[in-house]
Structure formats: C-alpha cells, structure tokens
Amino acid sequence: MNGLEVAGVVLGAFPLLISGIEHWRDVAKVGGFYWWIRKEHTRCQRDCQFHEILYKNNLRELLLPLIPHANQVAELIADPGGQRWGDMALQERLEGRLHESYQLYQSIIAEMNEITEDLKKELCLDKEIVQNRLLPPDAKRQNSNQSPNPQASARLWKLSVAKGRLDYEWFRTRFSLGEKNRNDLFNRLKECNERLEKLLSSNDRVSALQNAAPGYTKQTCVLESAFKMVSKKSDLLFKALQNAWQCSCQQYHFANLRLEHRTLTEICFEIVLIFAAPLEYESKPWCWREIRCGHMLGCASSQKVMNAATSSPLHGQPPTLPIPAAVPSLRTATRKRVGFVASAPTVPNIKVDPAIDHDIHLCQRLGGEDRGECMGIIGHEDEIFHLHPIIPEAHMAGTAPITLDRILSHDFEGQLSRRQRYAIALLVASSVGQLQSTPWLRASLCKEDIVFFPPNDDNLMTPYSKPFIRQGFSHSQTELHPTDFLTNDCNFYSLGILLLELCFGCRLEDYHLRKTRPATTDAAAKQAFDVLAALKWSDSVSDEGGDDYAKAVKWCFMGVTDREKNWRGEIIRNVVQPLETCMKHFQNVASYGLGGGVYREIV
C-alpha cells in the first residue's frame, strides 16, 4: 500500500477501537465488574477519541492543499475505506507536496498503523468471548438453536457460562493490569501525531518562505531605498530652509513637516511654516504658510531662472585673453635676445547652480502679497527644492495645533477610533525610519512632538490622518552628526511606548502600573520607570491589537542593540510591515462589508 492508503487504514482503525470499547462496556456490565474498571475504561475511551481528532486534523492539513474544495476533503475523511484513498493522481500530488519529507511521513504512518493493531490486541477485541457477547440477541438465539438435543444444549450452556465467567475474570484482570501497556501505546500514538504535525508545519513554512521570500525581500529593499532617499532629501531640505531665512527673526520660525508613509523615491514634502513670535514683538509680516517642497518638473519659475542664467554674460562665451606678441624671428635679429612670454592667467572653475536663488530672503518672500505659483527655489549641496504655496490653505491660520498627547488624554472631548490610531501608528513608525538621524528628529520622538492642525471649516473634523512634526531654526542649534544617533539612540524605546499608547488609546502616564512608580525629575530614572511599565503593558498588546501589532511593539524594546546592524532595514521588516498588515485587515473588512458599520479610509 502507498502512503495515502495506509493513512486511510489508520483513520478507519479509530472508529473500530472506539466502537469496540463502547460495546465492551456493555459486556463488562453484564459480567458485573464494570464498576471496578470504569475509570480506566473512561480514560481509555477518551484517549482514543483525542488521538482520533488529532489525526483527523493532521489529515486535513495534509489534504487541503491537494484537494481544491474543503467539502471533498471532509467527504474523504468521512469514508476511510473509500476508493479515493487509492487514487494514484492524489498520491502523486501528496509526494509532490512533501518532497523529501515523504519517506519520513510514510514511516510515521506505518508506525501508527502498527500501534493501532497493537491496541486492538491489548484491548482483547479479538477474543471469542468478547465477540460472542457483542453479537446481537437474534444471532445468539440462532446459535443456541443449532443443537438438536435440549439436554446437550443445557449442558453446553452451563459449560459456556462457567467458561464465560472465567473469561470475564481473566479479561477484567488483564484490563486492569494492562493499563501501563495501553498508556505506552497511547503515548507512542501521541508522539507520532506530534511528529506528523511538526513535519507538515515545517514543510509548509519552508514552502511559504520559498514562495514569498523573493517578493517580500524585494518589497523590503524598495522601502529601504525610499527611506534612505527621504532621509537624505529631508536633511538637505532642512539645511536649505535654514540658509534661506537670512533674517534676524529666524529663532521665531518653525517648520511643521507632515508625516507620510513614503514608499516612492520621487518625494515632495508638505510643510506648514509658522511665525511664532512673542506678544511683545513689534510686527509680523506673516504668521502661517502652507507650502510644498520638491523638484517640480515643468515649473515656470525654474525655466525663467534658467533662461536668465543662460543669457547672462557670466554664462556666455569665455572672455578672450590678449595674445602676447610674437617673439622676433632669429633670422632678422642681429643678435640673440632673451624674452619672457606673459602666461595667461588661470581662471578658477566655479560651479554655480543657476536655478538656486541664494538671496531669496524667505521670510520677506513669505510676507509678500503676491506669492504666485512658485515662491522661489532653494537648495543645499546638489539638491534643489521648489517652494509652491498651497492655496487655499487647508488649515486654520493662527489656531494652535493639537498635540497627540492632548488627544490621548482621558479628558479630551473627542476619541480616536482603532483604525485611526493604527493609521497614525504606521505613519509614526514609517517616519522614524525616514527621519531618524536628521535635523527633523533630533531626539526620541514622543507624543508631544506630533501635532494636528484644525481645518478651516468648523464643520469639518480634525484631519487625524495628517500628523506633523515641528522643528525650529534657532541659531543655537548644533548640527547633528550621523554617529550621534547610533551611539545614543539605538534602542527605539520611545517609539515602542508611542505604539503602545496608540494601541490602547491611553497615555503611559495614565496607565495604572506607571502611576505606582514614584515621580522623579531625573530624566534617566523617569525613562527607566517608563520602560519598566511599558514592558509590562506590552504583554497585553497581542490580545488588544493582534500578533502583528505585538511583533512591532516587541521589536522596539528588544530589537536592534548592535549599532553596526542595518537598523533601517530591521525597522521596516519588524515594525513598518507588520503595521501595514494591520491596516490591510481593516481594508479587507471594509471590502467585504463585515461588521455592519461604515468604514472610512484615512490613509
């Protein structure tokens, strides 16, 4: 028999074992000794039923990838002796599914078949006395009527009763004393079921990884390239903005960068610039501007600057230098002379990008009435950014932004839905992967750094899908060195705490375990207490947010510790992509219309 046929034989043995044990219980009651073995009998029956269920589950896991419809698998399992178990086409698919694991599978199934046969013998189901007692009453009467002599029949009946009592007593003794052997057989059966389950699971995991690894790795590499590009361009954008102010009020200027899950290398940044001067400040030429910064193809401003640059004398033909006079010919000279030829002066090759306006005076430009389609072009090193105003502005100028800390507080008048909180979590985690080690994210990100701007229309809700992060341009700010992040901030604890707060919709300081810790002004001690409470809180994430969300939180506390590792690739694989999966669950629910509610897309 092939591996599939043996699997059907083993499957058919379980109903026979269970049925025989149930019928034997009735025989034991007739013999008057069931009371003495009822516990052993019940345990034996339950063990048999338990291993039958485990084996059926293993068969379903084995057959579902081979048979297209689940109802056909159910029909096959319900008919252990059916002809389909000998189907050669199904057998070939089985061997193709298991590959090199097929021989091990076959040995496990063969061992299970031997164990079931041993169980039949151990339970004495082949004994004549048990089989006779299991016969229906009509069959028994028919057997008794076969003897023509009544006296002989009575004598045979007495002998049968005496022999039956001895058989009953022998069987009762053997059943009681054979508990150890039965337990050993059931333990072997359990071990075979577990080995079969592990074999199928490991085989499926390897197959899934082989099928999904190329695409998954490619997606990770694409995201990592995009994040690196965003990190570089956002760093240059900040420095370009810092160089473009050229005003004495620079310390009162703040840029709010919108947090986005950027997956493409073509990048355009959305920024809200704010003039946040104190009340005693004399005058503010502007207070609020929304702009887009990026490399805008076909921008009219860029074309005008390029045309003006090419028509300038500085960019025309290089100036001609005077040619020194020729040295007199030796033939016409009456005597030898020594002369020095004047060398042409060397002109340094200065590379100037004609598109960048180094005298843009951004503060003055933002206060102008006519800002036009493009307010100018700024740049740093080899990157340029067009400044395009967003008109009409989507947010309410002069209104204080709302921090995420305020939104998560228990006394906030609104409440974020689970979907909104998970969407913000994805944007925050993605932005940490993009902006960490740049001037936009100088320190560990926390909920006070993330802000939302109310809309212009009072009837509209605050756009929670558009969080921003604020950064100033003070002259006293020191430039961040790339190694500072690797040295001081490679633990991602703050991101893990933020994901926890968004998972439960509650601030860490409002969590009851955090309240039990003493209040302190020491930053290091406060962080230690925060992390201890967060680690305890993280144990409940799986039940609240699912395994994918729990995986993202766990990595933040126990992930990258070696500064030499590729932390950006690690955060994409272990935090960003699991959170993407969480958001896909919402999209799948919305697409199938489950839950009876109305689902709004916010990302």
**CA gyration radius, whole angstroms:** 41 Å
Secondary-structure element pattern, one letter each = HHHHHHHHHEEEHHEEEHHEEHHHHHHH
Low-confidence stretches: 134-144, 154-159, 305-352, 481-489, 594-603
Structural class label: alpha+beta
Q: What is the average of the pLDDT values?
A: 76
For the record, the CATH architecture of the largest domain stands as Orthogonal Bundle
Number of helices: 20
Question: What's the count of strands?
Answer: 8
Strand order of the largest sheet: 4-5-3-2-1-8-7-6
CATH superfamily of the largest domain: Transferase(Phosphotransferase) domain 1
Number of domains: 3
Strand content: 5-15%
In helices, the fraction of residues equals: 40-55%
Sheet with most strands = 8 strands, antiparallel
CATH third-tier fold name of the largest domain = Transferase(Phosphotransferase), domain 1
Describe, in short, the structure shown.
With 603 residues, the protein is of the alpha+beta class. The protein is built from 20 helices and 8 strands. It folds into 3 domains: 3-139 and 155-214, no CATH class; 245-309 and 353-393, no CATH class; 398-596, Transferase(Phosphotransferase), domain 1.
Comma- or semicolon-separated keywords:
single chain; elongated; disordered C terminus; DUF7580; alpha+beta; 8 strands; 603 residues; Transferase(Phosphotransferase), domain 1; DUF7580 domain-containing protein
